[in-house]
Amino acid sequence: MKSAGDLFVRVREIALENFRVFPKLQLAVSGDLVFFTGANGSGKTSLLEAVAVCSMVRSFRTVSDSDLITWDQNYYSVDVIFHDGQQELRLHAAYGRHDTTQNNQRRLLINKEKVSRLAAFIGRLPTVIFSPDDLEIIDSGPGERRRFLDILLSSLYPAYFEALQQYNRVLKQRSLLLRRGVNDASYFAALDCELALHGSLIQEKRQQFVTNYQAPFERYVQQISHSRDAWQLSYRPSIVDGGDRHSYAAALAKNLPHDLKVKMTLRGIHRDRLVFHPPQRPNLELQQIASQGQKRTVALALKMAQYAYVKEQTGKLPVLLVDDVLNELDINRRQAFIGFLHEIGQAIFTTTDVAEMEGFIKERRAHSRVEVFRVEKNSVGHAEVHAL
Ligand SMILES: Nc1ncnc2c1ncn2[C@@H]1O[C@H](COP(=O)(O)OP(=O)(O)OP(=O)(O)O)[C@@H](O)[C@H]1O
Ligand SMILES: [Mg+2]
Known about the structure:
- It is built from eleven helices and 16 strands.
- It is an alpha/beta fold.
- A hairpin with a 5-residue loop joins strand 15 (about 370-375) and strand 16.
- It starts with 6 loop residues before the first strand and ends with a strand.
């Protein structure tokens, strides 16, 4: 539930240069519920992506920054001005492509001051995204669920993000040694000491997260399914007791002969699993047994619980980014989602069909400031945004 003490985070302005289909845009936003409507391919999702880039320094749609640059240009920039409940902040994220060198340049500013560490930028603007792709977190391999954990925990804890970067760097070095067939244990001792240092921190945070996430997750599953469904979330670390640095290091040392044989690092947080299963049935994994509808329920509950978790950890109401989700929900899930909207701060929606949302918008106008924008392409194919 929303409590009086929570800080209300509000996006106030979005300014873009060469960002996807927007060569240039400056848009003031003042609503609590903001709708971007328009035809397919007009640029609605790109606007949410821009906000996400300032929140997490990455898009939720693509892995490559170059994809975000307007075709035939060589850089993009996004500015988001927002109020975090205490002060107004301006975030600037830019990325340039240099065709002739490998030297791709990223620039991050907070209030026009250069930020040299990514960890200081990520999560300043707290957001939670709801997108049709959320189902993949449930339905794809364990890597997708680790990614979900890593993005979320990185945005909350700079130390997690930095440990993860270091871990991945050292893991790469270790993999290289293994692949080359280096067979000298002394080479591995120093690397494994570093892996244990960073890996144990990451494992500890993941464990803590799953423990605290359990209750809101189960509550939302019940709410969405009218208590017909119950699912639990379990963390299955690759190294038992690996939250402790010494146990972590001991496990790596013990496994080294095997790693040398298969030329891979088989143990560690890069092999951890997050599993959804029925209560008291830890061996039945949701992926194998759940219906499509049950998976949708879990995906929705996962994101609602993410919102609750970020709110609890930061004392702030994150900005909700809702990409085309509302129209896709069946009546029960839609009701649950609309109920959830009463618990949140600002939300930015995209939809092709604003008429479908008319009832909802009317109902909400009584309680919140609602703002509707139309996104459309102009005669030269550039996107424009107009207030309706
Ligand atoms: N780097 C880029 N440069 C220029 N245009 C791009 C770039 N990347 C994508 N586009 C185009 O941007 C347009 C808008 O895409 P976007 O996904 O934001 O639309 P949308 O309004 O969300 O559509 P839908 O309703 O189908 O979800 C698409 O026509 C796409 O081809
Ligand atoms: Mg879209």
